[in-house]
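Friendly challenge for the regulars: who can give me the structure tokens for this chain first? No prize, just bragging rights.
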Amino acid sequence: MILSPQDFVNLGPGEILVSPFTDPSWTPLFSLAAGVVSEAGGPLSHAAIVAREYGIPAVLGVGDATVQIRDGDLIVVDGSAGVVTAVRADSEPLQ
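First reply, four minutes later:
Bragging rights claimed.
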């Protein structure tokens, strides 16, 4: 979970970037991330545009993503369907 620039060091290669938002200062994280989940944003937002450039899936506008998803959770990010699913027995898609 990356909540602010002070947390940037916590994102490892191949992890999913889960954040409340992104802006241009967050762009270097996209080269590490396998996908993006953000509480804010839409098709023309910073996260959407940069994720497309890097060819990684992104689902934006996921309210409470930083509350529902915890560090270490395994999730599937389906950018085409706009769905984030936790990988566990009782998983329901996050909207």
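The domain at 16-86 is CATH 3.50.30.10 (Glucose Oxidase; domain 1). The longest strand covers residues 16-19. Your move, everyone else.
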